[in-house]
Amino acid sequence: MSVQTSSSRPLSETRVRSAPGPGEDPYPTRLREPLDLPWLNRREPVVKGEASQGPLSTEQLARFERQGFLFEPDFLSGEELQALRGELDALLDRDDFRGQPFAITEPRGNEIRSLFAVHFLSRLFSRLANDDRLVGRARQILGGEPYVHQARINYKPGFEGQGFNWHSDFETWHAEDGMPGMHAVSASIVLTDNHTFNGPLMLVPGSHRVFIPCLGETPDDHHRQSLKQQEFGVPGRDALRRLIDRHGIEAPTGAAGGLLLFDCNTLHGSNANMSPDPRSNAFFVYNRRDNRCGEPFAADRQRPRFLAHAPDESWSPHA
Length: 319
What we know:
Blueprint: E1 40-41, H1 58-67, E2 69-72, H2 78-92, E3 103-105, E4 112-116, H3 118-121, H4 123-129, H5 132-142, E5 146-156, E6 164-167, H6 169-177, E7 184-190, E8 201-203, E9 210-211, H7 223-226, H8 237-247, E10 259-263, E11 268-270, E12 279-288
Antiparallel strand pairs: 1-9, 2-10, 3-4, 4-5, 5-12, 6-11, 7-10, 7-12, 8-11
């Protein structure tokens, strides 16, 4: 895959731009030319609530503040976990979902890679998305009432599941969905065991404190390609190298049932699944209600509603 990076041409050959001033978009991205800075400082606090306001302890909130993510093993177990795994299999087996825009297949195959708006497709996943064990954690981190901005199942089949390039979710949601600020958190529940060889999620701890503007203007209907293989909205390699040299890479692994919470701006990605074991997770994005999306900051129009929900809206695959 060809990745456009800030290191692909010397800065001396281009006209550089300055950091945004007052009244300008604080997180410019999808640029024609690079800024004169490798990244911009985050403006919003990471954790807005306190330990007394939810299930996370002071120590857990401090870890999330410091690293940009928090892994809780054994969040779900027993019959509850088994029911979700059964529901996952049933959804992936739905022939009527194949070929639908909300069902994303592998770049080189017909296996479903991601199934979006899953909380509207399944009562079981709807109950999970609205469960106060998750909503309470989101409310505590965001410091306000959350709603589900996006929900999906990610499935990485054995031997065939391809990886996800390094990216910040906020960069995409800001550029293409119109999310104004960094007031969103992702909750990923591991539905199958994650181990070293089946492409676990990798994160750069501390990367959530800076925003990396990306090069390349957003193509029309970019989501059709980016959900399979992302080329635009990918940070430049020089900035990635500097952040990884400074902070390293971590890949939380463990048995099914674990919960990974991570900040909307934490850089993450994953390798291909080289093992026979599938890797799957349920993924819910909670955005603060006063941070609802508006006009995209770096795209001609918003992405389809199955990718970016508004507060209190309903969605149907037949709408």
